[in-house]
Amino acid sequence: MKLVFASNNAHKLSEVRAIMPAGVEVLSLRDIGFVQEIDETGTTLAQNSLIKAQAVMDFLKCQTLKDVDGVFADDTGLEIDALNGEPGVYTARWAERETGIHLPEMETYAANRSKALRELEGKENRGCQFKTVITLIYTRTYAVTQVEGIVRGEITPVEHGIGGFGYDPVFKPEGFDKTFGELSPEIKNTISHRARALQALIEKL
Questions:
Q1: Measured in whole angstroms, how far is the alpha carbon of residue 12 from the centre of its chain?
Q2: Of these residues, 75, 81, 168, 177, which one is catalytic?
Q3: Hey, where are the domains in the chain?
Q4: Which CATH number fits domain 2-202: 3.30.460.80, 3.40.50.1970, 3.90.950.10, 3.10.20.90?
Q5: Is 67 exposed, middle or buried (0-12, 13-18, 19+ CB in 10 A)?
Q6: Does the active-site annotation cover 75?
Q7: Tell me: the pLDDT tens digits for 20-35?
Q8: Which of 32, 85, 173, 176 falls 20 to 30 Å from 182 in CA-CA distance?
Q9: Which stretches of the chain drop beneath a pLDDT of 50?
């Protein structure tokens, strides 16, 4: 089976390819020549996930990639209890929405983590959850499947670890005394929100 993952994020691609079973080849947007920006106008993770998958599917309809079996896209949100579920759908652009300044990827990650720590300063409740919604569209039938994965945890007072990406150094999953930034990729890929969503997707393939 050959699936297109609607992303060029090297970190996400690495995680997804490590989790997918043998026999499932995962292509990136770069692999299929998709270079357009996708305008994520949805107000929920499910909507944005569908928008991304549909945009790539529309692109494939004009191509000759007949051996591609489907397209899947994910959208992930960090939902912080004390902030009424923020940043939610704005997780990836949280700091940018506040400052209006677009930064390179690694600087964006750092700015988002700093904002999370700043927003929770002095608050006792640091509970939160990561939620991933994945939408799969089959190229032959255009049937749509959506699954989700959730992992509860808390935002740590300071950053720990340099592994992973995004909010990983400040997110400590329930049942662990280390953040995603400290845990090995092998452990993270068995418990993370994206891993849980992917496992749910694999069961439907």
A1: 7
A2: 75
A3: 2-202
A4: 3.90.950.10
A5: exposed
A6: yes
A7: 999 999 999 999 999 9
A8: 85
A9: none
